[in-house]
Give the backbone structure.
Amino acid sequence: MKAAYSISDLAAEFDVTTRTIRFYEDQGLIAPLRQGTRRLFRPRDRTRLKLILRGKRLGFSLAEILEIVDMYDAAPGESGQLRLLMSKISDRRAYLRQQLQDIEATWSDLDAVEARCVKRMSALGESI
């Protein structure tokens, strides 16, 4: 593992733009060292970026991601971080389960409306 990464190194590795990385820095999610105008990202920043991107893929907000990754450095440390993450995962699953139920209900409504349309078109002597 390298001692330091440039913003371009991380952008290429994680397939994100440098603007995305700067945004996460502005939001306080990562804190690279500075050498003049150059950013030097430590392995810790690389790991945080990896966790940020994973959290975004899972649908967590930036505030939730910050809360989770910041807990690693604070009491109760990693075990508290893991408990919080498991709680957030449970909440996210419940949210997605509800969304799935809503989508299934909408799908059923669309099928019913479409069936009525087909029936009415047939009654009008029209073909579909």
